Amino acid sequence: MRKLLLGACIVMPATIFAQGFQVNLQGQKQIGMAGAGVGTAMDGATLFFNPGAMAMLKDNEINLGVSPLMFKSAFLQDGSTTVENNKNEIAPPFEAYAVWGPKSGKYKIGIGAYTPFGGLVNWGDQWSGRYALISLDLKAIYIQPTVSVKLTDNISLGAGFVYNHGEVELKKAVPISQSNGQDSKATLKGTGEGYGWNAGVYFKTLSGITIGVTHRSKVVTKLKGGDAIFEFPASIPAATLPTKFDSELPLPATTGIGFGFYPSPKTTLALDVNWIHWSVYKNLSFDYDNNTRVADTKSPRNYSDGANIKLGVNQQQTEKLALRAGVGYAFTPVKDGYVTPEAPDANRFIASAGLGYNVSKKFVVDLSFLYEAVHERKQTNLETGLSGTFKTHVYIPGIGLSYKF
């Protein structure tokens, strides 16, 4: 019985990779346009949004950017009048791209590093949901070498290999009192890796509209030999507790179609529709190296697929200054009963703004700001029993530098 109790208490939250952790921050120009970029060829971030469009870029360039993400979430437990808030933490999603090819040539090659999944949340060790989660620090860093070829002046295609380096650290309280009266704690931390691909095709129609179609594959991240750390009372011998664990986490595939409209030489409108294949996420398992007190776990998740739609505009005000804005809406894949404090997910509204300034013919500075209003959601988690209402806002300023050569 004690073994089953410990096993139930130590199961870590399993909705690590919900919509809330799909970080759509892969290019500063595109962020300013709500994240739309599949059907346009704007800069080196095209390597991520649609490798097929990369060969259409006029310049060779290097792009660097960072988007400090501030996640603000509030929770009201059922039966309580006290609203609890997560602690202030800032996650730093980044992007870096380098694209090269003969000027006016038939191909371009490039490499990118970016963070499409990640999260940083800390609720503290005294809040009402501490037995579900204290904190989460998650990073998924993709590295993508890419080749793009122009078949004609109006059609190009491209593909890239994806390597993922993942890092995760999760902490939660366990309702077993230590000698000082404080709750016991459990921590899982480790690194993993996975592999995938990104491919796309890009068309310029006779009417001037551009169309992009892209698919980013599922990446199964395998974590081997992660550290299982327990702060338990001496009455529970350390030799009976796990010290290592293995796990396997699927990062979903995404299929997107995008359109570029050009009502004037200075105006670009971008429309993207993306389908995220979250239905691959059926369960999450933890395999511990010692099952004396803690049984291996297999937690059902049964996600549905998710989707989003984004509309953005880029207006070249002057030779040096471009202004951007965008709106979007994302549909959550997290079903009722599976919402958790590390990803208090729901459908969300997206709004953005940005600007670009040409410091010179070679140097460009881009600024962006993206806001996400996650709908209020009242839930009872089927696994932990945590019951209450979450309300979340996300604020993301960003800055990028580009060098053209």
TrEMBL record:
It comes from the Bacteria. Gene3D superfamilies: Outer membrane protein transport protein (OMPP1/FadL/TodX) (2.40.160.60). InterPro entries: OMPP1/FadL/TodX (IPR005017). Keywords: Cell outer membrane, Membrane, Signal, Transmembrane, Transmembrane beta strand. It is found in: Cell outer membrane. Its main location: membrane. GO terms for cellular component: cell outer membrane. It is a multi-pass membrane protein. One of its GO terms (molecular function) is long-chain fatty acid transporting porin activity. Residues 1-18 form the signal peptide. SUPFAM superfamilies: Porins. It holds the Pfam family Toluene_X. PANTHER family: OUTER MEMBRANE PROTEIN NMB0088-RELATED. Belongs to the OmpP1/FadL family. This is Long-chain fatty acid transporter.
